[in-house]
Amino acid sequence: MASKKKPDDLPIGYFITLTAKYYFSDELNAEQLSGIIKEKTLEFDLDNYQEYKYHNKITSTCEGLFIGSIDRRFKEREYIPIYDNEIKIISALPTDRQKKLMFTFLAVARYMDCDGWINKKTSKDISELFRLANVNLTSDKRNELLHELYINGHISFGKKVDNLNIRVKLDDSGDVVYKITNFENVGNQYIGNFKRGYKQCKMCGKVIKNTGNKKMYCNKCALDNELKSKKKWWDTH
User: Fold this and answer.
1) Cβ 156 vs Cβ 150: under 8 Å
2) Contact between residue 198 and residue 213 where contact means Cβ atoms under 8 Å apart
3) Is pLDDT at 30 greater than 60 in this prediction?
4) How far apart are the C-alpha atoms of 18 and 13, rounded to whole Å?
5) Which of 8, 18, 13 is nearest to 57 (CA)?
6) CA 138, 139, 144, 147 torsion: positive or negative?
7) Dihedral (Cα; 15, 136, 183, 160), 10-degree rounding
8) What's the pTM?
9) Would you give the end-to-end CA distance of the chain in angstroms?
């Protein structure tokens, strides 16, 4: 809240719910809380945000908090689990781009906790998912990749024509084989942990080849570390 910056992977609707929980008080009523949420949301200067479109969402959320139909508590999660059966499905996909995107979809869907739905309303929201997956493509190529996953039954789309909602099949049977604790470079996390011969740079998250020589950083970060070490040595001598 203090940063006035919404995380890219956080939908506006869920952001409104979290903001309402944050400012909820028994000393207010639903109408007063709604006014606060509208004011605070505008302070974030969100892209594609138009208050009239979210009026009903804000009102129903605030009313739900006061009547108890919405849990007022914040849920804390240590990690987002990815299960063995899900990794098996991902590993069978033909390209690294599909694998990274599906891994990211599963992570975001489980984080959203909406029965496998990833709620996105604009092409910009979709591009943010691709960025999170470390898949850099033009809009046309993104659509092609989504279509490939769709025709093979790995994802489905919402029926409404005014959004781009995506649904994935979550399978929490079997063992947890990976725990996502950091929602950055999610696609690279898959490659760095499940593709033989590769790992992630410990500093920037870039995928690097595992040369077997205990290499932990990409060349750029390794150089930065070396320069910092030399500077620290000179500062103490």
Assistant:
1) yes
2) no
3) yes
4) 9
5) 13
6) positive
7) 40
8) 0.67
9) 42
